[in-house]
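Entry 14. Structure prediction run on the chain below.
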Amino acid sequence: MLLETERRELVIYGKRMLADKLVTLTSGNISIYDPETGYMAVTPSGIPYDETAPQDIVVMTLDGKIVDGSRKPSSENRLHAAVYKARPHARAVVHTHSMFATTLGIAGEEVKAVHFLLPDLMGRGNVPLVPYVTYGTEALAERVREAMKDSPACLLQNHGMVASGRNIACGCVCQGIGSRDNRRDAVESRMHREDENTDRAGSGGNLRILPDQLRAENLIHI
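Output returned:
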């Protein structure tokens, strides 16, 4: 089985992300890149993490060709490939729809450096926000590639978060810091500011609502 070690790692970390509540059911996706072969191993589409086996993992080139595996690869495989092209030293990519990442993405907020580990992990103060683009598209992959040239992670507006690392463990740590403690601080800070400024009950505040055209595009994409 090609990239057997990497496939087994993805199964293990998929279950860990599920336990840590970074993902639910089949949401999100993770991958590992092998520079020697130029292949990436990526989680399959539509299979829950706790039911995924090593043989379900799909091995692909960064140009989208399936090399090994009978399953359909994650719909965001182009996004993963784009990160590896933007960050040559990255060896893993983790994409989740975790609660706090999604909350800040809907609010249209970058992640500020409110956690002491963030500058160490990111090499910069903030986690950038990528404007909304329909999921699973080449356009989204390109936006993420641009955002992650200078950052190992980014938020996706109305979507979730993407993080990379020198291995799958680092990618998951980056997601964990960004998606839980840091976001809790940021969201609480945002809510406090909103309460001070005005009562927004029932108004939706500054939530970024998708326009009708984009919602229609999402339904077609499904």
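DSSP finds seven helices and eight strands in the chain.
Filed with the rest of this week's runs.
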